[in-house]
Amino acid sequence: MGLDSTLVEQLVKKVLLELTATEPKTRIGILALREDTDLTALSGILPQGAELVCLDDGCSLEDADRLILPTLSCNAMADLAIGRASGKVMESVLAHLLAGRSVEVVTFEYQGYEKTAAHALYDLYESHEKTLSGFGIRRFEPKTEDTLVSRKRLITEKDVAEALAKGAKQIKAGAKAVVTPLGADFARNHNIDITKE
Q1: Domain extents for the chain?
Q2: Segment 59-97, tens digit of pLDDT
Q3: Model confidence pTM above 0.90
Q4: 3-state class of 197 per DSSP?
């Protein structure tokens, strides 16, 4: 029994569409003005290929997959903790929080004063951070790579420990790579899979 050529064409088109389809880019709203933001540094900690949109780019951030605030100053933190915001950036942060969106903060300014600030003052800002977490502000957690690719010919315990520190669960190495006994033991003890390609 022969196959209908129209059916075959439709199947081929569908398969080709699925093979050539690209993943939609992650859209990340940067709650800052472009001129005040080091986008190169942010790109290094955000998912690769993400589209970064700043407040002054003329685009709405309503459809952003994530909202990132590069720095939360002590003054802005104290204001937000009592539901107040001033300036374009903080007003936008507050508007997103009121809309039920989460905002991820890369740097809390108060933490830079941990060694010098009076304990009572530092504790106050820690309590502000707890209050703000109830509003939807949370610390930014960089995405970790589950798999790291190693081009090294010798994989040592130090290499495996570095992969573990980056959150990796697997190391892919070249077919001729050699894993030292200590490296293999460390990987086994920390549930890291080393595969050779």
Answers
A1: 27-139, 147-196
A2: 788 888 889 999 999 999 999 999 999 999 999 999 999
A3: no
A4: coil
